[in-house]
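STRUCTURE:
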């Protein structure tokens, strides 16, 4: 019985589903973890565990298809991260559309008004006008927030896919066969 190698998008989509669910859960834990430290820690843990899960999926894929190159594994990891990001984007959009009700923007506005934040901001960027930044934050729409989050998710895809794909090694059976073929 021969195993047919699935297309890149098919394999990546199956790998992306649990990763995307973990990222979405991590996002929700972050949103509700501001005043609940346990949720905040769970958010971080889900992010780290998701990278390990993707690594395990890539290792199993390479074990099933030993002729797969590491570059293919990296592309598979990158596409899986992009698809997981899309699933996360969908959850984030639904959250901001139905559940947030301006909670994030009011939290940011309150944070900007704190004296510690103002002092830190003035040290980092003394020319910045915090009142203008606060007005800009208060005028943000769900679309504006989603554009920022989608861009952030795309930018995170490459480093996270690299973290998951770098330690994936070729299966030992293939290495032993190559050594036996050498004279």
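SEQUENCE:
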């Amino acid at each position: 019985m021969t195993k047919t190698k699935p297309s890149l998008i098919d394999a990546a989509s199956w790998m992306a589903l649990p990763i995307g669910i973990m990222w979405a859960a991590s996002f929700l834990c972050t949103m509700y973890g501001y005043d609940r430290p346990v949720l905040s820690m769970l958010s971080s843990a889900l992010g780290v565990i998701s990278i390990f899960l993707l690594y395990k999926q890539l290792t199993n894929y390479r074990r099933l298809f030993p002729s797969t190159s590491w570059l293919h594994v990296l592309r598979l990891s990158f596409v899986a991260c992009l698809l997981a990001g899309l699933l996360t984007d969908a959850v984030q959009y639904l959250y901001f559309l139905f559940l947030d009700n301006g909670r994030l923007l009011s939290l940011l506005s309150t944070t900007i008004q704190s004296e510690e934040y103002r002092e830190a901001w003035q040290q980092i960027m003394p020319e910045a006008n915090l009142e203008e930044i606060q007005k800009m934050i208060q005028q943000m729409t769900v679309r504006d927030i989603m554009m920022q989050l989608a861009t952030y998710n795309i930018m995170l895809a490459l480093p996270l896919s690299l973290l998951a794909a770098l330690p994936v090694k070729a299966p030992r059976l293939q290495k032993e066969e190559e050594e036996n073929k050498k004279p």
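REMARK: The chain has a mean pLDDT of 89.
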